[in-house]
Fold these 3 entries.
Entry 1:
Amino acid sequence: MLFVVLVFDVVVISFVQSIFMDIYLKAVLNAREKPVKELSECFHPLFRHLSHEDFQNVVLPSSVKMLKRNPEIVLEAVGVLLDSVSLDLSKYGIELLSVVLSQVRHADEGRRVGALAIVRCLSQKSSNPDALEAMFNAVKAIIGGLELKIVSCSGLKLDLLWFR
């Protein structure tokens, strides 16, 4: 009897999780206006129980698509998402960094801070040394490309160096 209850609980939890995942995608990632940070934080229990499959097939494509389309709207929400998940993000680091690092160079300080928070989360939640090296090289390329512009953006290089 206990086995039947446990199987039923797993089925119910996976069903409810898919419903909340759809709500998160529609209300936060596909929002037309910037959602408040608290809305993203409400989904913290969902993020803690995400599997690699759900993250890779559902959340990551939507996040990357919206970061390309409207980064000013979802940058903070993606930062909360990455900070809340309990997954090893080594596999997804380069894919996310390719989109986020363009925001590190943006004139708006809020976008730079949000992008650096994502870089920090990716570096802290990656365990693969090769992935960390690739992320470091990507950030290093951004810093190297900004050497000539550092006079006009004095705080940007320091922001990049202190993103931990």
Note: The first helix runs from residue 2 to 29.
Entry 2:
Amino acid sequence: MQAPTASRATSWLEVIADPVRLGILRSLSRVSEATTTDLASWGQASSQTLRRHLDALVSVGVILEHPAQSDGETPGRPAARFSLPAEMRESVRAVLDPPEPRAEERRRRAAQAGRVPSMAAAFASTKSIAAAGPMNGARTT
């Protein structure tokens, strides 16, 4: 009985392992629901490209598609809306959009890890580069 679960997990991972689909998940984790047009306006991809990716995510149950409902006034077919299940929204946000520590805390952690030179060292290295002359082979007159 474990094989179908493993197979479904593999299928689920294969479906989301795409930059456009990860972008869709990130966007949907930030809002309660969105249309294909909304996602396209947020820069994910074109509406046509998004539709294919949305269909794949819906097919394995990663996202939900809500039936389009007419408001009775707007002409044309109403747009379907998509959302993440509530229980998944926070999980996706935690993985794809982890909260950033405050800038001061980031600098302190980086300095402790030895990844960021002190300001004096950074300034000194800038002065030595400037003293060496242009790096692109240009001659100064």
Note: The chain has two domains: 2-96, 103-132.
Entry 3:
Amino acid sequence: MIGISLKLRYETEVILITFVELLASASWISITLFVVGIGLLIVEMFDPGFGVFGIFGVICLIGCIFVTASTVTEGIMLTAFFFVIILIMLGIFLFLVSKGKLPGKLILKDSESKDDGYSGTIDMNEYKGKTGIVTTTCRPVGNVDFDGSKLEVVSQGEFIEKGTKVEVIEIEGNRVVVKAITN
């Protein structure tokens, strides 16, 4: 157990030393690519669009890895480092989302109220209990004429022939359910 612990500690120290040496040997090009890449990812997080900033940010970070890393091991270490940084940025973003501290561009502030003349659907409740004549056979969907107003309706599963008198028995949003009236 002690041997495994010491070996793991030694390997961790070697990785940290290698990583510090890698960062110390970074050129101004790799530092610029890193800063620009992280900056573009931040812009993409707080001003989402078509993903252009995010894509160019990732390209800059990949370019930074190619410019900086001289071995595969260094490339893997840099990739892991960038992954951790991106996860931290995502965590900060999610924390801000949970606290409601987002830029105004991400949150819709306008509302469409009925008082302003907006409506999501037509209020069909006025048709409840009304009778009309089927203008196309309901199979189970068809059209009915209610005193000159034509609506698409649905029966309760049965076929209703054209010319049959029907009554509206249920309204579910835009769905108007009818049944045939038997004399």
Note: The CA atoms of residues 97 and 183 lie 61 Å apart.
